[in-house]
Backbone:
């Protein structure tokens, strides 16, 4: 076994292959959640041109809308990539490489999905209220998303002592 007895997963007493399988399964679960979010946001965006009010958009709003559509397509592409990579590499005994690539792609997907969510809210506020409100609300949402996805995990980690137990 290629196990580091002092590593973060040492208490699991699993082989390297078991650890990679577990990590890949975890990543697949995360991708399922991201995929659903991506599908819902993309579906929302794709229905907008068929709404009566869409013809009333300014040129800037139309361009921003198109940026959001491209961003939604990028999210979908990034979310699908681990599956495509797995299909290409299945059976080649490179699960560790796949796990590393999927981990990176999940992080990219979360960042893109956060931008997409903030962009959609900005777009809606721009159309319904005004540009100033849109920028304030969209910017605030982006800050909240960054806090939840970047700052909160670091705060949780900092709250643990070196032995891996939660601080009391």
Residues:
């Amino acid at each position: 076994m290629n196990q580091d007895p002092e590593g973060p997963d040492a208490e699991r007493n699993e082989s390297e292959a078991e650890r990679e399988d577990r990590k890949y399964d975890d990543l697949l679960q995360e991708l399922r959640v991201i995929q659903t979010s991506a599908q819902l946001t993309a579906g929302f965006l794709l229905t907008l041109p068929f709404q009566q009010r869409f013809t009333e958009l300014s040129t800037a709003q139309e361009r921003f809308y198109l940026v959001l559509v491209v961003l939604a397509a990028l999210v979908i592409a990034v979310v699908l990539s681990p599956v495509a990579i797995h299909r290409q590499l299945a059976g080649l005994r490179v699960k560790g490489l796949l796990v590393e690539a999927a981990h990176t792609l999940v992080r990219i997907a979360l960042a893109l999905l956060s931008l997409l969510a903030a962009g959609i809210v900005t777009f809606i506020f721009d159309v319904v209220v005004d540009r100033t409100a849109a920028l304030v609300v969209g910017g605030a949402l982006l800050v909240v998303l960054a806090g939840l996805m970047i700052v909160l995990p670091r705060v949780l980690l900092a709250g643990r002592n070196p032995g891996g137990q939660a601080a009391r």
